[in-house]
Amino acid sequence: MSKQRRTFSPEFKQQAASLVLDKHYSHVEASKSVGIAESVLRRWVRQLEQERQGITPQSKAITADQQRIQELEARVDRLEREKAILKKATALLMSEGIERTR
Fold it and tell me: Is the per-residue pLDDT at 101 higher than 80?
């Protein structure tokens, strides 16, 4: 029987990390009170500190602002890929049109 990996919402992560950052709980106290491993809580605290400084994380963001930034960056990437495809298609169609007129 394999152990099921637990998943936590960004809101839960933010609340757990804010116990340490805002309520001045120790990492041990906060991790016991929310029922997670101390190492996990330390990672969330570090990530929340970075997000509050405006650093966009590599993993899924905790704060709403950083989540929105990640969504917008993903959209920009997709649009840039689409633009590149359209640019190549236009160049191909134009070159075919020039060859037909010759």
Answer: no
Q: How far apart are CA 55 and CA 48, in angstroms?
A: 9
Chain segment 22-38, per-residue pLDDT in tens: 999 999 999 999 999 99
Q: In one letter, which amino acid is 56?
A: T
What is the Cα–Cα distance from 31 to 45, expressed in whole angstroms? 11
Calculate Rg over the CA atoms of the chain.
23
Q: Report in angstroms the alpha-carbon separations of 97 from 85, 90, 92.
A: 18, 10, 9
> What pTM did the predictor assign?
0.73
Of 6, 2, 75, 88, the residue nearest 40 (C-alpha): 6
